[in-house]
């Protein structure tokens, strides 16, 4: 991972829409350009984060999966 997150948000075990809601709240605390890593187990997190970033102006840097856990890197938009 090229971008180092300044915060990690653990949403493992939570179902939609909670990871999206918590991500929205957490990213507002970051400065523009800073990176948030979301940890989630809900398979819907991938389409949810694609839709959320296209609506909010934040950037989806990438999604990887390690076992049951999705690692989602998000950069706060300006």
Q: Judging from the principal axes of the Cα atoms, what is the shape?
A: globular
**H/E topology pattern:** EHEHEE
End-to-end C-alpha gap: 21 Å
- Overall structural class, as computed from helix and strand content, comes to alpha+beta
Q: What percent of the residues sit in helical stretches (DSSP H or I)?
A: 25-40%
Uncertain segments of ≥5 residues (pLDDT<50)? Answer: none
Number of helices: 2
User: Would you report the number of β strands?
Assistant: 4
* Integer-rounded radius of gyration: 11 Å
Strand content: 25-35%
- Order the strands across the largest sheet as they lie in space: 1-2-4-3
User: Largest sheet, described in full?
Assistant: 4 strands, mixed
Average pLDDT confidence is 96
What layout of secondary structure does this protein have?
Elements: E1 7-11, H1 18-27, E2 35-40, H2 45-56, E3 59-66, E4 69-75
Parallel strand pairs: 1-2
Antiparallel strand pairs: 2-4, 3-4
Can you offer a commentary on this structure?
It is a single chain. By secondary structure, the protein is of the alpha+beta class. It has 2 helices and 4 strands. It has a 4-stranded mixed beta sheet, with helices on one face. A hairpin with a 2-residue loop joins strand 3 and strand 4. The radius of gyration is 11 Å and the shape is globular. The two termini are about 20 Å apart.
Question: Which labels suit this protein?
Answer:
2 helices; alpha+beta; 78 residues; 4 strands; 28% helix; four-stranded mixed sheet
């Amino acid at each position: 991972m090229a971008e180092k997150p300044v915060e990690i948000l653990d949403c493992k075990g939570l179902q939609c829409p909670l990871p999206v809601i918590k991500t929205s709240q957490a990213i507002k605390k970051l400065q523009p350009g800073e990176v948030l890593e979301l940890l989630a187990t809900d398979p819907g997190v991938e389409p949810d984060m694609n839709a959320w970033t296209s609506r909010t102006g934040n950037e989806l840097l990438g999604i990887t999966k390690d076992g049951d856990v999705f690692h989602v890197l998000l950069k706060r938009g300006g």
